[in-house]
Amino acid sequence: MTRHNDPDDIAIIGWSISPMVRTTDKTEAQMLLEVVTGAVTDAGITRKEVDFTCAGSCDYVAGQAFSFVQNIDAVGAWPPKRDSHVEMDGAWALYEAWVRLLIGDIDVALAMGSGRSSTADPALIYSMEMDPYYLAPLGADATSLAAIQARALLDAGKVTEQQMADIAVRCRRDAKANDHAQVAGDFDAAALLAGDYVRAPLRKHDLPPITDGACAVVIARADKARELCEHPVWITGFAHYSELHNPGLRDLTTSRSTTLAAKAAGVEAGPVEVAEIQAAYTHEEPVLVEALGLGADVVVNPSGGPLAANPVMATGLVRVSEAAHQIRDLGRHRTLAHSTSGPCLQQNLVCVLEGDPT
Amino acid sequence: LARTVESTIRFPYKRSLGPVLGAFMTALTEQRIIGIRSGARVIVPPLEWDPDSGEELAHDFVDVGPAGTVTSWSWVEKPTTQHPLDHPFAFALVRLDGADTGFLHAVDAGSIDAMSTGMRVAPRWKGTRVGHITDLDAFVPGEQPEMAGDDAGPAAEPVTMMDYNAAITYKTPVTPNVERAEQATNEGRFLGLRCPVCARTYTGGKGYCPVDAVELTPDCEIDLPQVGTVTNYTIITPVQYPGQTETEPFARVHVWLDGTDVVLGYQALLDTPNDDVRIGMRVAAMWASEAEKLDQDPRAEGNLVGWMPTGDPDVTDPDLVNRIC
């Protein structure tokens, strides 16, 4: 590992994760207000020192057109800031913020993600985002499509229902140590496997919880990061790739775009200690672990991952925060975060993080 | 738990289909399923572009099926309102005979026990077909296509458009700030909030200062005057969309409350012919009486009926017109 002295190096210097709850009584803007305050405070700055912001949210989740316009109130209107928005998870907002800082004319950027999935039936919301000709008119919901991917993996012998239940048990157990977890505790795999199918072959424990929540992350260019922060968490690789939208045209037993993103982000350049991945369904974990090239020694989702809390539109940015937490607060050296979007892992993002050598 | 407000948003889209999807939808009305050649592959349903190279595909269509093989599937025990069937069914990827890809659709198998990877299925067509993915009612187990109801025949003309209808019902929590603001209007007053940082005053239920991004707690509440000045206005000629009750042109005015930063936009102006509406008019808030409250349209926001001219001399200030928020 090298010391990061290139001025174009960019580091995470602060973050904040909201409470993760089944139903909030706050607006998205109010949830963001708290995490933006939390993230800039964590970074030791004020909102005035943020030069660029980018938000990730979804109008279909919000139930309102141009909902992001209200959300930027959370940043504060004065002094004016360069602002952007992605109809994607906040992890993609962080990607845009990272690219923006690479230009070199500004030093500090803030990315945020927010969503209140509780206000409507996710099975009705997410089918709206499918192909509008062939998939959305069938009401093809994310969980039905995920279940088709799970079946493909079961048929190929790449996973068993027992292993899927074991993943749920492990994530919920690990989540006990996470203040931001919504589903945590000790569960028995046999008892989980006795439950009914929601979308066979997926049972309730194979699905993420419905979560309201938000997250914000502050990044800075190298000189500013060193000035503000004793332990900057360096972003050493960042990439995302997409593949065909229609799951019927893909090999669902692998995730080619994840592999491409991992390669582009330089995952192979060193050992990964912890991976925080957006496996919102149990069967997605083995697909992603294989596609990322992670060995058995890599700790996967010590936070409990999306199976413990799934604030849609912020779930990926929470993964980045958790991966950064592993370095700054728990002494790890090299971690990665993964985020995904679209049906059956259509689009995948990989972010590699490193601490300064000790 | 917070009180919630329920609202249903409909998404009634009309979509143009273009030459490839249009050909596919037209074929459905003829009880045919077509794919498109992309190199050595036949892609079903057809795409306009080669998924590997991004090049536009020649319109080299191939009839596939009608029967095919299930390559993967999931069982839906409780269908949603958007699903094609109202009883338990499977979503499946079906590799139609002659195709190289999985075609997502419903399989009406009756029971999960009748489903298996590798099973053979054939289409059940709707009798009335309009050029829509659901002209194919569902696949059914077996080799032989079926018809649901009387066959009304294929489309007379090539299909160029399709309808898509969806609806989502949201239950949005009413935040404590909105509760306080509504309570205030029920009592015939505006909830005023003064930002502890910039001292700007606001009204309504937002609950924070958008300039400074700080929370406006009950400690920040202040009384607001009920008299103000018209800063700008528009005369609206109504179009008769659902919910529009006005039939004649009407005014909407912006009112700047005296001595505050609060400008209330798009307010009703009472007892004033459209020709008399002026920037600088002095106006006072009119609240519904207890009797009027009972008659009020339940969709109306709060209890404010509108603004009545006070008859006081107009304010003359050339900058007034710029105060719309």
Describe this structure in words.
The complex is a heterodimer of chains A (358) and B (325). Helix content of chain A is 32%, strand content 21%. In chain A, the strands form 2 sheets. Chain A has a 10-stranded mixed beta sheet with strand order 3-2-4-7-1-8-12-11-9-10. A two-stranded antiparallel sheet of chain A has the order 5-6. With 358 residues, chain A is α/β, with parallel strands linked by helices. Chain B is mainly β. Helix content of chain B is 9%, strand content 39%. In chain B, strands 5, 6, 7, 8, 9 and 10 form a 6-stranded mixed beta sheet that branches. Chain B has a 5-stranded antiparallel beta sheet with strand order 19-18-17-20-21, with no helix packed on it. Chain B has a 3-stranded antiparallel beta sheet with strand order 3-2-4, with helices on one face.
Short note summarizing the structure:
The complex is a heterodimer of chains A (358) and B (325). Chain A is built from twelve helices and twelve strands.
Give the proportion of residues in helices of chain A.
Answer: 25-40%
Question: Mean of residue pLDDT of chain A?
Answer: 96
The coarse overall form of chain B would be: elongated
Please give the number of β-strands of chain B. 21
User: Number of helix segments of chain A?
Assistant: 12
* Cα distance spanning the termini of chain B: 33 Å
N to C succession of SSEs of chain B: EHEEEEEEEEEEHEEEEEEEEEHE
Largest interface: A-B, 59 and 60 residues
Sheet-strand content of chain B, in percent, reads 35-45%
Low-confidence stretches of chain A: none
Structural class of chain A: alpha/beta
Spatial arrangement of strands, main beta sheet of chain A: 3-2-4-7-1-8-12-11-9-10
Radius of gyration of chain A: 19 Å
Protein structure class of chain B = mainly beta
Strand content of chain A: 15-25%
Unreliable runs of chain B, pLDDT <50, ≥5 residues? none
